[in-house]
Amino acid sequence: SLYGSGAVGGVVQILSAAGAGEGKATFFAEYGEEKTLRQGFLWRGPAGAGAASVALTRLEAGGRGPRDAYTGVNGQLHVEIPVGRERVRVTALATQGEKELPYDFFFDAADPTLSPFGSYKEIRDPNNHEKDRVIAGSAAYTRAITEHASLEAELSGFAGMIQNQNPPNAPSTTDYQRTNLDNSRGLATLRARFTPMPSLQTVLGGEYRAEGVARLDDSNYGGFGSVTSVSEGVQSRALYAQTHAEARQRLLVDAGIRLEDHSRYGAYGVPRVALGVLLP
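-> structure tokens emitted (280 positions)
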């Protein structure tokens, strides 16, 4: 119920390990087949009364043949700081890569093999390449209201870009292809957790989610040009409740409901219940 339709197959959340004591820095370098080189830096340590970790890696690979190389960099940040009865957590990720694409299709108007007007041929491409970029982050604030209740607020966002550039190959001056794809997601959520006893836990919350995608395709093959573009967005608002209970260390009950108001699919409710029995 907390994660909605994105949790069809379950949810796994992994956070960087908290630093303890003095800071610790690690440098590494690796080398492998296909001229693969990976190097990086990792630091974990205290941040005031909390902990922080920073990681930076770079990957370079030559590939299996001509124009099959890849180069990418990746950075991660995780900071968690307690402030009295409050806790602040900030997580960020950024990655960027560039990939050479060795193959392309060339339209030969003088070759009637596939049609009287010409044929497409697969060729080694001297300049086809693709770039990708991902930036994501979240900031969460937790405040303990009582010994058995807490309030959590979280903002998170994601932005991704894929750019393919395939300029004309000599002797052609017209055959080219360009694609730009941008997608984004933003999420704001507020939830309350109640634990009146160790065997009973309840979460109540609400969230707002907005997603968007923009794509531009521009191509020209054999003198036939085409330009298409797509720009779409959806929004959803949701309220949810979920409870986990255990009885006599033998019976487990999970129950929840999520009420969703989606800009495209309308309003609907998704209840769920699960019952488990522990066998010695």
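The radius of gyration is 26 Å.
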